[in-house]
């Protein structure tokens, strides 16, 4: 009975630790954003900071993977406030609808092209590594 309780406590502490790491990175990125002399999104700073920590070995993927996967699986939930805001300001946005649609279409095409090019480069790079081995 105690063993099951220990397992549950260990799992709970693992969850708390992972959430703490993610929130600490978010908090640090907010601090960095407030110190910068120019506007730069804290979310981008946080992603870059997390990448640097993972690449440098300061953090291991196991330290954040479970909770990061949970957040990614439930990402749609985080778009609800943005959707509500669009509905609230629809009258204001209606006058710029054509420009917004054009921007969305162009940015989507650019994103697809850059993604496809990145995938092609990655595949070439991986094939070269296989050939070198």
How would you describe this protein?
This protein is an all-alpha fold and 133 residues long. It contains six helices and no strands. The chain has helices at residues 2-35, 42-56, 65-73, 80-88, 90-94, 97-132. The protein is extended and about 60 Å long. It starts with a helix and ends with a helix. 3% of the residues are buried. The mean pLDDT is 88.
The span between the termini is 51 Å
Outline type = extended
Structural class: mainly alpha
The overall pLDDT average reads: 88
Characterize the largest beta sheet: strand count, sense, and whether it forms a barrel.
none
- Helix percentage: over 70%
Radius of gyration: 21 Å
Tally of DSSP β-strands: 0
Order of helices and strands: HHHHHH
Reconstruct the topology from this structure.
Blueprint: H1 2-35, H2 42-56, H3 65-73, H4 80-88, H5 90-94, H6 97-132
Helix pairs in contact: 1-2, 1-3
Structure in a nutshell:
The chain is an all-alpha fold and 133 residues long. The protein has helices at 2-35, 42-56, 65-73, 80-88, 90-94, 97-132.
Provide the descriptors you would attach to this structure in a database record:
6 helices, single chain, mainly alpha, 133 residues, extended
């Amino acid at each position: 009975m105690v063993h099951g309780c220990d397992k549950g406590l260990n799992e709970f502490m693992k969850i708390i630790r992972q959430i703490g790491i993610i929130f600490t990175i978010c908090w640090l990125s907010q601090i960095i954003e407030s110190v910068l002399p120019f506007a730069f999104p804290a979310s981008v700073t946080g992603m870059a900071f997390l990448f640097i920590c993972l690449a440098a070995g300061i953090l291991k993927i196991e330290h954040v993977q479970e909770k990061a996967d949970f957040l990614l699986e439930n990402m749609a939930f985080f778009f609800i406030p943005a959707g509500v805001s669009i509905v609230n300001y629809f009258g204001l946005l209606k006058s710029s609808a054509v420009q917004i649609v054009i921007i969305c279409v162009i940015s989507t095409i650019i994103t697809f092209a850059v993604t496809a090019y990145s995938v092609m480069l990655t595949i070439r790079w991986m094939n070269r590594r296989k050939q070198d081995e």
